[in-house]
Amino acid sequence: EMSLWLWQYHNSVTSSISRKTAESSDVKTVSSGQTWPSAKDCPSCQLTGGSWDHLQVYQYLRDAYWGDEDAASSAETAYRMSDIHVLDAKSTLVLVGIIVLILASIRMWSRRYLLKHNIGYLPLS
């Protein structure tokens, strides 16, 4: 799931920045409250031993960012987005067709021009 990957990446960057800040300011300890969500915001997200309950984290992300109303409309949004991709595919086919017609017209025009002015290929022998 992309949202969990982004959440993990966010926490790893936050931890990395905190470590570098602590090293540069000669602070020997790094606060353990750097990860998100905090135990206060989501008590069920962290298991004992510091590991994460990914299902609970995902639910917290859904509640925090999508909410119930938005989650219900996500299927509709996905459906509308699939229509956009279909339109993009149709537009691409039309564009390719126009390019093929232009190239065919140029070839026909150049062939007529060469024949009209008696310009042709030189014989090999």
UniProtKB/TrEMBL annotation:
InterPro entries from the UniProt entry:
ERV/ALR_sulphydryl_oxid_sf (IPR036774), ERV/ALR_sulphydryl_oxidase (IPR017905), Sulfhydryl_oxidase (IPR039798)
Q: Where is the ERV/ALR sulfhydryl oxidase domain?
A: 1-36
Q: Per its UniProt record, what PROSITE patterns does this chain match? A: ERV_ALR (PS51324)
* Organism domain of life: Eukaryota
An individual GO BP term: protein folding
The kind of enzyme this is, by top-level EC class, is oxidoreductase
Q: What is this protein called?
A: Sulfhydryl oxidase
Species this chain originates from:
Minutocellus polymorphus
